[in-house]
Every structure is written in C-alpha cells, then in structure tokens.
Amino acid sequence: MGMLQSLRFDLLIPKVRVQNEKMPIDVLAAGMAPVCGIDLSVLSDLMRDEISQMPCGIGQGVAVLDVRSAKVRRPGIGMAVLNQGISLEGADDVPVDVLAVVLSPFSDGPLHLQRVAAVTRLLRNEELCDALRDAPDVDTMRILLMPSQRWMRAA
C-alpha cells in the first residue's frame, strides 16, 4: 500500500466560517493540539511562524502547512475547508479555502517529508478539492478521503 492509500487525516473540519485571517489557524491548532500532544498556544505559534517563514500555498486555493518541531509529541494531519478564502502566500494569488497541516516531531525524519508530499500530491487534485469544498459534513469528507477513492490510488 502506497503512502497515499495509508494516509489518514486525524482532523477534518468542513465549512469553517472565517471571521478573520487568523481564525482558521486557531481552529486547526485547537483540533490538532490534543492529537499531537502539544499545548494549543505553542502549536498556534508554530503554525503562524511556519506561515511567516515559508509560503505554504500550493495553488488553486489550497495550502499545506509543514510543521516539524521537537515540541510535537505525536504526528498528525488535519484539514479545514473554509467558507471563504484567506490570503496566504503561495504559488498563485488565489485566496486559500482548503487548508491542511502536517505536524511531526523531529524524530520522524523522512516520514514527515513523505506525509507532506502525500498530502500535497493529494490536494493538487482539483476534482477532489472541489468535492471537499462542497462536502456538507465531516462524514462526507472522510468518504472522499477513503483509500478506495480513485484519487487516493492515482497519485
């Protein structure tokens, strides 16, 4: 089984109502902090630092935050679909409305890069991203990301 087919999202949040540019980061951090065994404020700071240091937008309204830190105890992957786009520097000027985060402890080494590559490859699929944007709930998002789906096998 390839990395994509074994990829598991620990947190999926559909239809996040964006009230300001920082809110989606806070929502993802709040959901991922317990998954990764890290304090919420520390994780929020790590995610904001990542955004300020390196463009995370991969194009077409999608961004993948790549956070690797000794403060992260367990790896985790999360995604939020926003009701409107936010400005994050990236491959194009399209506002981001699909935001993923890949969190890993430093000890994960190359596994972290494999996770980031798999999430990035997956979210470059326009058809999948459009379906995620249209997903009314977390169950629909989970179905779209099941290993049996063609985009999970194709990339």
Helices, strands, pairings?
Layout: H1 3-6, E1 11-16, H2 23-36, H3 40-53, E2 57-59, E3 62-68, E4 76-86, E5 96-104, H4 110-123, H5 126-134, H6 138-144, H7 150-154
Parallel strand pairs: 1-4, 3-5
Antiparallel strand pairs: 2-3, 4-5
Helix pairs in contact: 2-3
Care to give the gist of this entry?
With 155 residues, this protein is of the alpha/beta class.
Structure, described:
With 155 residues, the protein is of the alpha/beta class. It has one domain: 3-Layer(aba) Sandwich (Mannitol-specific EII, Chain A). It is built from seven helices and five strands. A five-stranded mixed sheet has the order 1-4-5-3-2, sandwiched between helices. Helix 2 crosses helix 3. The protein is globular and about 35 Å long. The model has no long low-confidence stretch (mean pLDDT 92).
Strand order of the largest sheet: 1-4-5-3-2
The helical percent reads 40-55%
> Can you identify the CATH class?
Alpha Beta
Between the first and last Cα atoms, what is the distance in angstroms? 12 Å
Return the average pLDDT rounded to an integer. Answer: 92
What would you say the CATH architecture is? 3-Layer(aba) Sandwich
Oligomer: single chain
What ranges have pLDDT less than 50 throughout 5 or more consecutive residues? none
The number of helical runs is 7
Outline the biggest β-sheet: 5 strands, mixed
